[in-house]
Amino acid sequence: MKKNPVKALEVEAAKRVENFGEVVSGYNEQDALSEASRCLQCKNPACTSGCPVGIDIKKFIYQITQKDYAQAYFTIREKNNFPSLCGRICPAEYQCRKACVLTKKGQPYASSESININFLERFVGDYGMKNNLEVPVNKDTRLSKFKVAVVGSGPAGLCCAGELARNGIGVVVLEGLHKTGGVLRYGIPPFRLPRDILDFEINYLKKLGVEFITNFIVGKARTLDELFSEKYSAVFLGLGAGIPSFLGIPGENLCNIYSANEFLTRVNLMSAFEFPHAHTPVSIGKHVVVIGGGNTAMDAARVALRLQKINSVPADTTVVYRRTEVEMPARRLEIEHAREEGIKFEFLVKPEGFCGDEASLVRRLTASRCELGEPDASGRRRPVEIPNSGFATDCDLAVVAIGLKANSILTNVTPGLKTDKYGDVVVDKETMETSLKNVFAGGDIVGGEGTVIEAMGMAKSAARSIVNRLLQR
Ligand SMILES: Cc1cc2nc3c(=O)[nH]c(=O)nc-3n(C[C@H](O)[C@H](O)[C@H](O)COP(=O)(O)OP(=O)(O)OC[C@H]3O[C@@H](n4cnc5c(N)ncnc54)[C@H](O)[C@@H]3O)c2cc1C
User: Fold this and answer.
1) Which end of the chain, N or C, is surrounded by fewer C-beta atoms within 10 Å?
2) In this structure, which residue's CA is closest to atom 49 in ligand 1?
């Protein structure tokens, strides 16, 4: 008999919007066993090819059905350093779940019948964490004399650091901000990724011997040449894509218009929701407009709504997107959650300008309606403005979440480090080595905004190349 997919437990929308606690509670043991039992254990599983780090998904799901959670944990950890983290935030519906045989071919994202691989991964990851399961480490004594600098402590940097340390290499992570984790800390809100999960993963790296130095901007505190002269044998660049894009429309410089990066950093990294107990303030709008259709826009809107609720301001937060829901790059689950929480969506709307008051505070957004035209370079149908469709809407806080670009602090001061027209670092796709010998790169600084697991996949390839290079010395 066909079994229905098991839905993960979630905190009720009306309760969860009043705080920053985790929304999805995940699977209990019975849920995990039921969901695992739906896996067809295909002879030629497609799911693994949908995973950027190549987890043996069929095997770990089988081990769950045998209640061998420890072995399931080790199976995942062979390929993925951070299962609890990825089980929470991986866009599985575009990756392993989309490749699952239970999703019909040609769908843009996984059907709900596909196995909930991410929730199973999360269950196993949390089991390993709760039971302090130690992953066997195979340090190679030939590598212990080498030291590698990892620049940036986002998922790319953390993953590369872990891989190198497990091989016995001395690793120092140099991070520009005062806290480690990159987007995992300053971008993704705690209601999606609780900070104890992130801290656990970072502490695990510390136990492996990885050293972290914060408030250290490479390109300012040291150049790459200086790092090499300090006896680092190789450098990995996991710089991310930290520079926000803007709309370039009139009025965008008015007060209370934030980039999503600034808005989220104020709240997630600087605890602005606790102001004045925390030092950093953030504006709480009565009519919030978030512009964009990706994960960043969903996070910004859900944070803005929580700030309204916590401060007893009637909730009015709207996401404005120039295409339709089908083209939205955000995770399906996040869109669903945002909607359940009361966030409104205005599709096929193109912002034209912001209007302010005499104090230069934003008061209104003017916009036009669109319809979908031919597909553009991204393959998604292009929004085409409908003539004379202009309108205005109240807006006293706007968050612009339309994309991120590479930060050029380091690349600008590093002669010979090749970048493309977007400012991203160019690498050899096999080795992840840049145009500079012994300098490797991965994550969003290579190829622009991607996903956590893609960043980790690149970092693993780079770490493999660094190990091979050092073994030849
Ligand atoms: C709000 C938001 C939500 C997202 N949600 C998801 C999601 O749900 N699922 C998903 O898979 N992906 C998501 N993403 C994308 C994902 O977070 C990124 O693809 C991923 O973080 C990229 O990892 P990274 O290590 O390359 O870069 P980052 O995470 O950006 O880390 C780069 C780090 O390098 C540091 N750094 C930069 N330059 C220097 C320098 N010169 N010296 C020292 N340090 C430096 C930065 O301070 C930063 O800490 C989201 C992104 C955002 C912004």
Assistant:
1) N
2) 182
Asked if residue 1 has pLDDT above 70, the reply is no
Q: Which residues contact 317 (CB under 8 A, 6 or more apart)?
A: 285, 288, 289, 290, 301, 304, 305, 308, 342, 343, 344
**CATH number of residue 186's parent domain:** 3.50.50.60
As given in the structure block, the two tokens for residue 403 are 């994309």
> Could you tell which of 82, 97, 172, 183 is best to mutate to test the pocket of ligand 1, judged by most ligand atoms within 8 Å of the CB?
183
CA of 183 to the centre of ligand 1 (A): 4
* 394: exposed, middle or buried (Cβ count in 10 Å: 0-12, 13-18, 19+): middle
Q: How far apart are CA 59 and CA 75, in angstroms?
A: 7
| pLDDT tens digits for range 25-79 | 999 999 999 999 999 999 999 999 999 999 999 999 999 999 999 999 999 999 9
How many angstroms is it from 444 CA to the middle of ligand 1?
7
Residues 413 and 399 in one domain: no
Which of 163, 239, 290, 328 gets mutated to test ligand 1 (max ligand atoms within 8 A of its CB)?
239
Query: pLDDT for 386-415, tens place per residue?
Result: 999 999 999 999 999 999 999 999 999 999
Distance, in Å, from the CA atom of 167 to the CA atom of 136, rounded to the nearest integer, reads: 11
Tokens of residue 150, six digits: 């990892």
Between CA 373 and CA 327 the distance in angstroms is: 13
Compute, in angstroms, the gap from residue 97 CA to the centroid of ligand 1.
Answer: 23
Phi, psi torsion values for 336, nearest 5 degrees = -60, -45
Answer yes or no: do 448 and 311 share one domain.
Answer: no
Residues 294 and 328 in one domain: yes
- For residue 266, give the DSSP letter: I
Domain that holds residue 81: 9-130
Q: Note the pLDDT tens digit of each residue in 151-194.
A: 999 999 999 999 999 999 999 999 999 999 999 999 999 999 99
What b-and-e string marks burial along 422-460, b requiring 16 or more CB atoms within 10 Å of the CB?
ebbbebeeeebbbebebbbbbbbbbbebbbbbbbbbbbb
Q: Could you tell me the two tokens for 377?
A: 């370079």
* Whether 390 and 427 share a structural domain: no
The rounded Å distance from CA 5 to ligand 1 centre is: 32
Q: Which helix (H) or strand (E) holds 354?
A: strand 349-356
DSSP code at position 275: T
Which residue in 49, 55, 164, 166 sits closest to 100, CA to CA?
49
**Residues having CB within 6 Å of any atom of ligand 1:** 89-91, 151-157, 174-177, 182-183, 187-188, 217-219, 238-240, 242, 264, 295-296, 299, 331, 407, 409-410, 443-445, 449-453, 455
